[in-house]
């Protein structure tokens, strides 16, 4: 029962986030923002939908049970939710599931963005690990962790190039962060 309740809550949360993202997208585009990365965005959306389908199938049809370590995994999950709210609040109208960039905008450098370049991707990656771990869904964990890393290997450098080109990201990217740079600056130009 816990599994289905958690799954419903997460799906409702994602729907609310999509509503917020759509509202922010309309606002930003009205201000002159441009959308980038439509091709890989579709793959990202499909990956997330398939994650929930895979999780549902694996837990239901292969009779996966709640992990004995579920309190640890659930605590990490709750921390990711706090992080998710912190990210959305920090970015305000700039938060989106798509890459939507307002030219000449000043990059947000408050909240978690003071410490980590892409905290939302860290949060999503953590969720893709802890949710399956809660229910011993190891097939879903391995498959979607790998798929997510492949998508992020495309999305993060692409997003960085767009931000460097369209905003003051060049200045903000000089600020040291906890996580190292993924791509050398010379390759971004």
UniProtKB/TrEMBL annotation:
Membrane topology category: Multi-pass membrane protein
Keywords for the protein's UniProt record, in alphabetical order: Membrane, Transmembrane, Transmembrane helix
Transmembrane segments annotated in the record for this chain: 42-63, 70-88, 121-147
Cellular location(s): Membrane
Chief location category: membrane
GO CC annotation, single: membrane
GO molecular function: protein C-terminal S-isoprenylcysteine carboxyl O-methyltransferase activity
PANTHER family: BLL3993 PROTEIN
Name recorded for this polypeptide: Isoprenylcysteine carboxyl methyltransferase
The species this protein was found in: Heyndrickxia sporothermodurans
